[in-house]
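Retro notes, item 3 of 5
We never archived the inputs for the zinc ion complex last cycle. Fixing that now. Sequence and ligand:
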Amino acid sequence: MVQRRPQARKLPSPEELRQLVNKLKTENKPANASYREQSLQLHGWICAKCGREFERENLQLLTVHHRDGNHHNNPPDGSNWENLCVYCHDDEHSRLILADYLNGTKQ
Ligand SMILES: [Zn+2]
Ligand SMILES: [Zn+2]
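Structure as it came back at the time:
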């Protein structure tokens, strides 16, 4: 039997959540809301990373990540989008920043 459960993480406090959401809002601006809608429709209300599922009440915690980091690259087939919950999204970006940092300091 295969057990594939989402990782149980400690839930942040409402204040921490608000800060996380604010932090990630820059790439989910209302002006760009249409791609979020599209991505949610294409990929479903589920985090691509941890498998957490979302409902209307907590859907604001599911954000759209741009795989190539370019928020203007929004192909309608959804190939540049990844639905990530705020936890995984934050994680993804810390990783990218770290990778940049490590690459940048190599020479
Ligand atoms: Zn997640
Ligand atoms: Zn992102």
